[in-house]
Design brief:
Helix content is about 10%, strand content about 40%. The chain is mainly beta. A hairpin with a 4-residue loop joins β7 (about 100-105) and β8.
Length: about 290
């Protein structure tokens, strides 16, 4: 687009490719154009003539703002295959508004897709369904859209399609302790976190057995768990099995001054440099209402 900024231009024969949050991306079959802040509506596949003001973005990429639209019916365009920039995001070689694709992890705060090993991130710009992105933080996304310039460390992409692959994570260890049910069902404990207003507190420790006679703490040891403890002066230095209690398929730790903690099993297969996060469900002590 050779016109100077703030010049009114007329572009005939455009076919709408993608609707964005404030406008659309269209093509004449050779070059793609971005039109934003439009005072009219269009549909994908519609053929139009546009009259609007030519401007240049902060990414030094031209676009058309506002203007008027003349409907020319419908048009058909064969889209080229998108250029995959997943492994070249730091040095994108693409024409303005060229269709590109990439896969990475979405940061909902920064509104960027990050890719391991890349210094640059892809900024999701003028997406038509921006509210849906708020729920996708930490998800692995494949974004296909139109390249709208680079200003390191940001590559601007106007999406045409976003595919959600779910949370981008590798689970190296998981335990929900539901395997304790043969013990907890037999001894009749409750989920006291949820039912403390209905049932009395219980003190069933890890010496309890299942129907086969196996002691619960021995099963924990066999699964690779271990324990730590701390006892303040003047308190009884109890063994692990009588200072840790069992509720309905979860563990309850510690009396006042007779503390304990759980050590996870050894976990192998974690690559060097991997960024890890430990997540667990927990609850403070519940107090029964009088």
């Amino acid at each position: 687009m050779e016109a100077d900024d703030e010049t009114i231009v007329k572009i005939p024969g455009l076919t709408v490719l993608t609707i964005t949050g404030t406008g659309f991306v269209a093509t004449d079959g050779n070059v793609n154009v971005y039109i934003k802040d439009i005072p009219f509506t269009v549909t994908e596949g519609q053929k139009v003539t546009i009259v609007g003001e030519k401007l240049t973005s902060d990414m030094k990429v031209p676009y058309i703002e506002g203007g008027k639209m003349t409907d020319e019916g419908t048009g058909s365009v064969t889209q080229k295959q998108p250029l995959d920039v997943t492994e070249s995001l730091d040095k994108v070689k693409a024409d303005n508004y060229q269709l590109v694709t990439l896969t990475g992890t979405y940061d909902a705060i920064m509104k960027c897709v990050g890719i391991r090993g890349m210094a640059n991130s892809a900024y999701i710009y003028d997406y038509k369904d921006v509210d849906a992105l708020e729920e996708l933080g930490g998800h692995k996304l494949t974004v296909t859209g139109y390249y709208a310039g680079t200003a390191n460390p940001v590559v601007r992409i106007i999406p045409s399609e976003i595919i959600d692959h779910g949370y981008n994570e590798t689970v190296y260890f998981f335990d929900d302790f539901e395997w304790m049910d043969p013990w907890t069902s037999l001894i009749g404990v409750h989920d006291w976190v949820e039912e403390s207003d209905k049932v009395a507190a219980e003190s069933k420790n890890l010496t309890n057995k299942n129907a086969e006679g196996k002691i619960l703490i021995d099963e924990l040891y066999d699964r690779g768990y271990n324990f730590v403890k701390a006892t303040i002066d003047g308190k009884e230095d109890r063994p692990f099995e009588t200072r840790i209690y069992v509720q309905k398929n979860y563990l309850k730790f510690s009396l006042t001054g007779i503390e304990a903690g759980l050590v996870l099993p050894s976990i192998s297969g974690i690559p060097d440099g991997e960024q890890l996060q430990i997540c667990f469900n927990w609850s403070p002590m519940r107090i029964r209402p009088k």
